[in-house]
Amino acid sequence: MNQTDTYAILSDAIVVVLLGSGPILALALGVGLAIAFFQALTQIQEMTLTFVPKIAAIFLGLLAALPFMYATLKGLSDKVFDLIVSGGL
User: Fold this and answer.
1) pLDDT tens-digit profile, the chain (89 residues)
2) In a domain? residue 89
3) Is residue 70 assigned to a domain?
4) Is 87 part of any domain?
5) Residues sharing a CB contact under 8 Å with residue 5, sequence separation 6 or more, in sequence order
6) What keywords sit in the KW lines (predicted)?
């Protein structure tokens, strides 16, 4: 195993982390912006108003995105385990 193999594995791992966390982070950002916009329009400055909808949206987003996240992580782990079995690592 040389430096290019290590670089390929690390770059794949970074892509998997970004693909796994990206949808949930984008959902949290969208819900947070919508709530902030609602608070600015109505002048309701309740601190707990931001947390409950955001937590509910993140939970529902995790339920929806979990199969995609699992498949992405399984693909990377299969690739790394195949390299280990073949003696590449």
Assistant:
1) 788 888 999 999 999 999 999 999 999 999 999 999 998 898 888 888 888 999 999 999 999 999 999 999 999 999 999 988 988 66
2) no
3) yes
4) no
5) 83, 88
6) Cell membrane, Cell projection, Cilium, Flagellum, Membrane, Transmembrane, Transmembrane helix
